[in-house]
Amino acid sequence: MPLVTTKEMFEKAYKGGYAVGAFNVNNMEIIQGVINAAKETNSPVILQVSKGARKYANMTYLKKLVEACIEDSDLPVALHLDHGDSFELCKQCVDDGFTSVMIDASHLPFEENVELSRRVAEYAHAHGVVVEAELGTLAGVEEHVENEYGSYTNPAQVEEFVRRTGVDSLAISIGTSHGAFKFSGEAKLRFDILEDISRRLPSFPIVLHGASSVPQEFVEEINTYGGNMKGARGVPEDMLRKAASMAVCKINIDSDIRLAFTAAVRKHLANNPAHFDPRQYLTPAREAVQQMVKHKIVDVLGSNGKA
Ligand code: G3H
Ligand code: 13P
Ligand code: ZN
């Protein structure tokens, strides 16, 4: 089956009270691990390409790998540009066959965010591609609190933003952040903001970035086999389940893939010091990604059996 957009995935997810996983992909083993897990669980899935992935692997390589991985299956798979930072980049991805793009202009003033997101939506829609935009900023939530909402998404702005831009989904900030070190104290998400937003935007799909849970078994394994990730912490899985049962239809996961992959490589090399064939340690790494994604789909997102 060819790549699909997220439109139908999100409609079904919203109604069904679950979320679709959006997994960042950087190489063949990660793509295969994620797709194998989606096939095993009969789940829709979104594969997304970040700025780092674009620099590391090149979008064309990743797109071809994804296509090769799904050519024998009828699983709904969307290929998404993660954190697109310009109209030109979004246009290039639309022209290259991505089925979904994110324009992240959340760091810009409201009017500029509206204008850029609107322009991307106009172009993408004319080519059958869907668009995610962002309102509120993820990083530094604790640092700059200027008003009641600080850098959280201000619910009073969402209706106007969605109406004027025409975007198909909205990434919001309710306390998550990118990376493996999310909370120094107690993990806290502003579900009140999510509720307020979903009241104002009925049936509209919301996206949660920075949603890795940083499983402690991976952190411990990395630390045991020569790494140092002390204090790494993510979003508790019960909070992600709660978000998925609400208006959140897309949950972004990258750091957990990195952790699963790295833990498996470290463990393999520590236990097999004579191995030097990359296939020897990339095989367990790919398997670890698959098992982790399977766990997310079944125990956190609830998208199993929904393909
Ligand atoms: O949005 C953040 C993702 O984890 C991607 O990060 O640009 O280093 O690949 P990256
Ligand atoms: P994590 O760092 O929590 O995996 O977030 C990934 C993400 O939001 C990609 O856009
Ligand atoms: Zn993100």
**Small molecules in complex:** glyceraldehyde-3-phosphate, 1,3-dihydroxyacetonephosphate, zinc ion
Give the helix proportion (percent range).
40-55%
The helix count comes to 12
* Largest sheet composition: 8 strands, parallel, barrel
CATH architecture: Alpha-Beta Barrel
Q: So what's the CATH class? A: Alpha Beta
Number of separate domains: 1
Order of helices and strands: HEHEHHEHEHEHEHEHHEHH
Q: Helix- and strand-based class?
A: alpha/beta
Instruction: Report the sheet-strand fraction.
Output: 5-15%
What name is given to the CATH topology?
TIM Barrel
Q: What is the overall shape?
A: globular
Query: End-to-end span in angstroms?
Result: 12 Å
Report the average pLDDT across residues.
Answer: 95
According to DSSP, the number of beta strands is 8
Strands of the largest sheet, in order across it? 1-2-3-4-5-6-7-8
